[in-house]
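Predict structure. Chain length: 394.
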Amino acid sequence: MIPVWLRLAIGGGATLLVGMGIGRFSYTALIPAIILDGALSEAQAAYVGAFNLGGYLAGALGVPMLRRRIETVLVLKAALLISLLCLVASIAPLGFVWLAWWRFLVGATVAVMMILSLALVTTSVPPDRLGKATGVAFTGVGIAILLSGTLVPVLLEYGLWAAWTGLAGVGALGVAVGWWGLSPASGPDVAVQKATPRPAVTMAIARLMIAQGLFSIGLVPHSIYWVDYIARGLDLGIQQGGAQWVLVGIGAVGGAYLCGWLADRIGFAAALVLMFSVLAVGIAIPVLWPTWPVLIASSLIFGAQPGLSAVISGRARQVVGARDMAHVWRWMVLAVGVGQTVAGYALVSLYNATGSYTPVFLAGAGAMALGAVLSWPRRATDPVPPRRPDGRRR
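Prediction complete.
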């Protein structure tokens, strides 16, 4: 029989597959085709991506109201269905306003799913399985990126409508798995989040919130421009851009689980610093040295970024405990929403003004580097895993 915590982690992974993976990141693989097909202009395609980021902030702001009125599992299931509706609606070629609205709405459901599914998973898992559980949950993002990178170039041979339809089909499968994993039958009332007083914002919490916001800024260049940079910026074509997005998916599938595994062994704080630093390098190098090995490395490194999300959520659980996790994780998701909304519009405007990808990617790398500094452990306040009798880390 599957343990309750693992079933919830799988359900959370399916939820993030539909929302974060398909609802957010799959659009990156479509941008070059949308522009070349004439469905949207270059600026419109980028701003649609920014609307998705703005929806994320709106969804995060609405979570407390939802939690006070509706059980967590019901909210998550509703978010799954709305996300699927957004994907289906995107098939219709009705222009900028139509697509911007549905991308905004799916951005809002992504925030709801990110906050509630991760709070549910991290508060339901035994402490010694925290890294594994968060890794399983964020693997759903990687699977979606891998599938979108594989399917989109093939389906684009039949037109944009076929690509959107394929993504909606993957989303439907994710909804089915998420419905199973998040079922109240997983455990007695495990999905009900009781109201608790808001914790005080300590220095440790503030550092995590700011680091999370910087992380979201650092993701914007790859999230919006990576495939477009390869396909049009380097003139390598949509097929090569799709191939690199497949590598992003491979990095995400393996990276999320491996980062959770690493955090269980060297400590969440140390793992967080390491991942921020590696991401900073991975985001900067492709615009400085755009060789094939560098492009491949950058795709794999950026792909592993769900692993940082897994680790920082586990780190938050260590710092604040299970009772306050839902509150603090919402604050951190709000930091993501603010960071990526501001960065989304600012970096798109920067690209439109300069016509160059270089300052956009370097700005993202700088944000990741600052995140590494803020995540640096501070004395005994940053716990590491206990040792086994044989002296090894658990």
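Summary: The chain has 13 helices and no strands.
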